[in-house]
Amino acid sequence: MTPVTTGERARRAVLPLLGAVQVALIAAITLLAVPLPAIQREFGLTQGELALLSSAYGLAFGGLLLLGGRLTDLRGPHRTLRTGLILFGAAGVAGALAPAYPVLLAARFAQGAGAALAAPAALALVTRVHPEGPERARALAVWGTLSVSGAVGGSLLSGLVASLGSWRWCLLIPVAVAAAGTLSRSLRRAGARAAGSPGTARPDAAAGGRERLDLPGALLGTGGLILLGHGLLTAPGPAPAAAGLALLAVFAAVELRTARPLLPPRMLVDRARRVALPVILLTAAASAATMFFLSLYFQQVRGLSAAQTSAAFLPNLLVVGMGPVAARVIGRFGPRAATVAGLLIAAAAMPPLARLAPDTPWPAIVLTTLPLFAAGSGLALAGATVIGMSGTPPHRAGIAGGLINTAMEVGPTVGLAVLVAIASARTAALGCPGGVTGGCTGAVSPAAAVTGGYGARLRGGRRRLPPHRGVRRHRHAHRHAPQGGLIMRFTDKIVLVTGGGTGAGRVVARDFAREGATVIVAGRTAETLGGTVTTIEAEGGRAEAITADVRRAGDVAALVDRIVARYGRLDVAVNNAGVLFAGPVAEMPEEDWRAVFDTNVHGVFLCMKYEIAAMRAQPGGGTIVNVSSVVGPYLRVAGLAAYGAAKAAVSALTRTAALECIRDGVRINAVTPGPLDTPMSLRPGETEADRAARVKGELPAGRVGSLAEFSAAVRFLASEESAFTVGQDLVLDGGATA
Fold this sequence. Notes:
By secondary structure, the protein is mainly α. The chain is built from 28 helices and seven strands.
C-alpha cells in the first residue's frame, strides 16, 4: 500500500471544502426566494423594492465575476478567496441583523460582491491543486454539478427555514461555510503550495514587471453586466438593459486595444470555450427557468404551500450524486461525449413539462421528469466545465473560472427574461392580461391560462388547451354585460371570502362572482369549498378554493401571500368565518369557549393583520368587511355569552383598525346581522319553526334575516358606493338597536 503523505491528505480535503463553498455561494442566491413575502410584510416593501432585494445578490455576483477572476490571477487564488469569504460572511451577518430595508439591501449587494471574488478563486484553486490530466478532469466534473446543487439546496432550505422560523436564519446558513473556508488550514496550505508550483508565475513577473488591473475594462464590464441584469430582471423599461448592452460593446472595443485587458480576447475565441460557455449558459438558463415556472405552477395552479413546493423539488437532489457519475462517464468517454449526452437527456424531459395542464398529476412530473432533467443538466454542466477549463494556464485560471461562473449567472438572467415574456404573452392570449402573475378576465380559467403560459415557455410553441372544469366559455363572459339585472360593481376585482364553503359565505361569494369578481373562498373543509366553486363556475363565474384555518397565523399568511402572488393584488376581503356554541356561562365547557374566540375573534384578527399588510403595499388600497352580529354589541341573549362577547370584540376590533388604516387607503367596516336563515342559527334540536317562534319573541323585526339581504349589505360596504363609510356597523336587525 502506498503511504499517503500529509500533503496528499491536505489536498484531498481541499475539494470537499471548496465544493461546500461553491454550493453556499450559489445557494445564497435562492435562500430568500420563499421568505420574500414575510420580508415584505416586516418592512412594508413595495413590489419594486421587493424585486430589487430579490435580485441584489445576483446582480452584484454576476456583474463582478470577471473582475473577481482577474483579481484571482493578479493577487493569487487563496488571498482572493479569503477576502471574498470574509466579505460574504460579514455581509450575511449584517443582513440577518438588518433593522431596516436599506441595510438589508446593502448587505445583499455586499454579499454578492464577496461571492464574485470567492467563486472564481475557488475554481482556480481546484485547478492549481489538481494537476492537468484525469485527476483534474474528475475534480472539475464534480465541480460542474455544484452550481445546480446549490440552487436546489437553497430553494429547499429557504422553504424549510421559512416554515420553521424567521427569514433571518436563512442569511446565516452560508455564513458557517464561509467561516470554515476562511479559517481552514488545508486551504491555506494548498494556496501556499499552489503559489510556488511550476507554471503559476505570470509572464510579466518573469520579466520583472508587475501586471496592473485593467481599471477601464473592469468598470465597463462590471457596469454593463449589472445594468443588463437589472434591465432584464427588475427595471420597468428597456433603458437599463440597452445601456448595459452599450457598455458591454464599449468594453469589447476597449479590451481589443488594451495591452493587458481584464478579459483577454483569446480567452473567448479559444475553441474549447466556444463550445463550453454556450452550453453552460443555456443549461443554467433552462435549470433556473424550470425551477421558476414549476414553483409558480405548484403554488398558483396546484395550491401547494411553500414547504410542499420545496419538497416537490427533492428529486432534483439527484444532481448532487451526478458529480461522481459524471466523472466516471467523462473518464471513459471524454467530456464532449458526456456534454452531448447530458443535453439530450435534459431535452428529453421538456415534452412532459410542455404538456402541463391544471389537472396534470404532478407527482408524475416530480418522480419522472425532474430526476431526468437533473441528471441530464448535471452531466452537461460537468462536461462543459471540464472543456472550459482544459488547457488553461495557471496564471489564467482565475479569469477562466470567472467566465464559467459568469455564464452560469447570465444564463438564468437572460433566459428568465425571455421565457417569462413568452409565458406572459401566451397567458395574456388565453385571457390573463396580467401575465403569469396577474389576474385573469378572458375566456378560460386562471389555472388554464397561466398553465398554458408555462407550457408555451417549455415548448416554445402553442397548442390547444384541453377542456376541463375550470374553462369558462365566452357565452358566460359576464364582465361585458350584467347578469340578471345586476350592477357590475366588481369587474376584475379580486375578492377573498373566508368561511365561504356553506351558508352565508357561499351566497356572498356567489353574488360577488355574479358582479364580475374573481372570488377566492377559504375555509377548513375542501369539499364544501369545492361546492361553492362548482356553483360559481356553473354560472360562468371565476372562483378558486384554498384550504386554510383562520386560527393559524401560518395558514392565513400563506393564504394572502398566495392570492397576491397569483393575482397581483387583493381588493376586497370578507371575514365571515365563525362558529357558535350555545350554553349558560356556568355550564359551558372551557374548550367550547376557546373554540368560539379562536375562530370568531383571533381568526378575524389574523385575517385583518395580513390583509391590511397586503392592501397597504398595493396601489389603491383595499376594502375589508368583517361579519359581526347584533348578539353581543347590541343585544343580550341568554345562552349566547361566548358568541356575544366574541362578536362584540369583532365590532370593537373593526372600529379601531379602521381608524388606524384609513390614511393608508384601507377601508374597514362590519356587517352586523341578526339571526340569518342558515343552519348556524338553529340551536341543538331546534326546528326552523321553533327558531321562527323564538326569534319572533327576541327581535323587534320578528323574523329571521334573509341571506340575500345580508349579501347585499356586504357588497354595499365593499363597493365604491359606500366610500364615505369607515369603521361602522351596518346593522341588519330590524330595529333591535332602536
